[in-house]
Batch of 4 targets.
Target 1
Amino acid sequence: MKKDTHPKYNTEAHASCACGSSFKIGSTKEKLEVEICSKCHPFYTGGSKLVDTAGRVEKFKQRLAKKTK
């Protein structure tokens, strides 16, 4: 590796999630803010979470209904 070309790697970087949990990870940044983590992700929790942005689900259902007629 060349010297002074790579960023400093922090082994104790602080990451905080939108769900409220926080944990330590390794990263080149000191602080990270994430929207979803293993404590709130549906794959790890076993639940499902539907996020409807601007009525996208309703628009899809309307298109699907038109197609089936």
Target 2
Amino acid sequence: MSMIITISREFGSGGREVGKRLADELGMAYYDREIITEIAKQTGLSEEYIKDWFGGK
């Protein structure tokens, strides 16, 4: 069974640190905005399109 945890945050809230610590504690991979860039590179699609497709802002 795969598990995906998403954390929505506002600038300066410390959400990135919470996400990293949670991933470490659970032994899971941690991805941040760089995953959007990597998907765009591999598919040739724009980052904006990828964000829209995933429902991001």
Target 3
Amino acid sequence: MLKDLFVSEVRVKILALMLPNPAESLHVRAIVRAIDTEINAVRRELSNLYNIGLMKRRQSSNRIYYTVDTSHILYAELLSLVSKEYGLGADIIASRKKLGDIRFAILARRFSRNEPSTMLDIDLFIVGSINLEVLDAIVKNYEQSLGKEIHYSVMGAEEFLFRKRRNDQFISKVLSQGRTMLVGDEEELCSI
């Protein structure tokens, strides 16, 4: 879908590679190898992204290294788009019907940025009546590809509403973190 919104498929590949890894600095040839695209197309798109301020660059000897500028005004929105198109977020959205009746599905922004998590962090939070076997299979498959555990929580709509109205500490923490709404409306999530 993103390649339908954006004119350049190369730009989409670069964004998908670099937005979730903002601390990583890559030189042009490493990006070319990672996205399997012609070097001139990669250079052109990196130049475009640099010119709009989404990428920073630095030169070291004869190499130019690029990193994402997380302070760019569109960074969070672009990261959300990438999170919905690739990885766990895309798998949840694609499997929505098999998963059951999802009212809200939230992916933590920290997870989307490949930042480390603790046992107390929730990477994926789902509200609704869910087929847990399907969800568990999706999460386990993604855990294997990632090589780390994904912390997720599922809650029925009534329990979520009850705990939210009681200012439950767990719900408050989930709602206070940066997030990408995979399913559902964020305003509705916060207002109920």
Target 4
Amino acid sequence: MKKIILSLMIMIVTNLLFATEFDIKKFSDPNKYGWDNLEKYFQAREDKQSRQKLLQIYELKKQDITKNVIKSAIAPGWGHFCAKDHTKGTILLGMEIVLLGTSYFYYDKAMGYYDKYKKANYIGDINQYYLDAEAPYTYSQIFLSVGIAVWLYTIYDSINATDKYNQELWDDIFQDYQQKKIKITPTGFSVRF
């Protein structure tokens, strides 16, 4: 406890020794922002308000990366579909279905031979059924491993797809704003050339 109090005292004394005086004239100088007259000030203020409106629109329409990652973890490709990357989402979902389906096919085949192995009485049949079950089981494990790798890649890539979607959304919103030549405001009309 004494060490904490001592370190706090040292920090306070250090801050007091090295503190600089606040310069109100430097802080309140409007020329540092390039506002030589009131017209430039009002233009800067209007631009700031316009950017804030654009940011509000963006915040309403953007997608949350965490939600898309969770969606991709539940169903591969779902996060890509939400991020409007339908081609990649379809490919990843298709790959996952094919890989897991193939893995299940070989697993089912291996279990069929394994059931015959457990019921066999003749030593030759026992060895043959065991060998017959071994290869499909190995293939099943390989396809399952590749399916898990594709699933993990889908989760990772949904982050990139969501970032790309959000960036394109911002670019579209900003471009639409730049292309509007006539703007109606509560104080009247404004026309840009």
